[in-house]
Amino acid sequence: MTTPSTSGVVRLGIIGYGAQGGMYARFIADGLVPSMVVGAIADIDPGKREKAVAEHADVPVFETAEALMDSDDVDAVVTTVPHYLHPAMGIAALERGIPVMVEKPAGVYTAQVEDLLNAAKTYPDTPFAIMFNQRNNPLYQRIKEIVDAGEIGAIRRSNWIITTWWRPQGYYDQSAWRATWGGEGGGVLVNQAPHQLDLWQWICGVPRSVYAKVAYGFRRDIAVEDEVTAVVDHGNGVTGTFVTATHDLVGTDRFEILGDAGKIVVEDSKRVTITRLVKPERELSDAMGPDDVARLFRGQIDPTELYTQETLEFTSEWGQQHSGVLENFVRHILDGTPLLAQGADGIDGVRLANAIHLSSWLGREVPLDFDPEQYLAELNRRIADEGLFPQREATGERTRA
After folding, report:
1. Where is the GFO/IDH/MocA-like oxidoreductase domain positioned along the sequence (predicted)?
2. Is 0.90 topped by the overall pTM?
């Protein structure tokens, strides 16, 4: 295998040539990822292999991920395979000393992601990243900077309504594995919303517990969730809510973060309004006596004297965020540039999605340090009821791609 630091070019192996794998191959072929070329492609589906050959005639195409990784054609790999296979493919790469970027989500349940993280700890010198492309979105990067710098004070509450995932029934009917417990591992939480679950925790912190009301097959003929309302508890009175669905034709994307010295409101993941109070809210409240309150209610005090506001708009060209994460992965391999998203970060979103499921199944609040074996038992019960796919193991899954 050519040493990428010597050649100056990273040959990426794309494992799985579906919509995502095909998109990454096109970005690289079109030159959107400097210092990266498509080294090889693997897919178990003969039709997809034929498509890969037709679209990338000079690129070797393999039947299995193992054959690709054991070839001399790649310096790194990305796992664009079904969710259940992400950990197994990641482990296989790490064991071979091949830098790996795992697609989101890192897995379906925490036990298998822990297996992946343990492998990463065993091979700490092998680069391990996850495709959280929204962390490359300048809007959310700016929000994180503001929060981390304390510009809106301590977070008191956050709310995210993200229902811009409208999916008609035909979307679910196009593949036998889609929207099944055994094939996909869930619905909107594992398919559409992982990026928001990651960003929410990346910016606002990992909660202690969650209580959720989840509807399964609510407005679609599917077994998994198509509507979610979750309330999380961060401790010290700090809470958050997360609402998502796939049956809202119009859709809403609104993210609010309330701090004790300001507020952030994001609309449509494009526009953000930052409010900064002149003093912490409690100080402003304590300084107002009865006469001030009376003048406030009569409209004699201009509330805008108590804060400043800034509105920012962001645009992002199609493919820019994904290709930017791939370029960051290249730079990390070649010169040690810090990763936008460490592979180990992938477990946070999986854990929260699992906790939301488990809370709805048990009908009670669930801590984020729930028993992973209990979750897997509940998941396997639903897989067995489906009767379409084999049940899952706690660790050690090595299913071929």
Report:
1. 140-264
2. yes
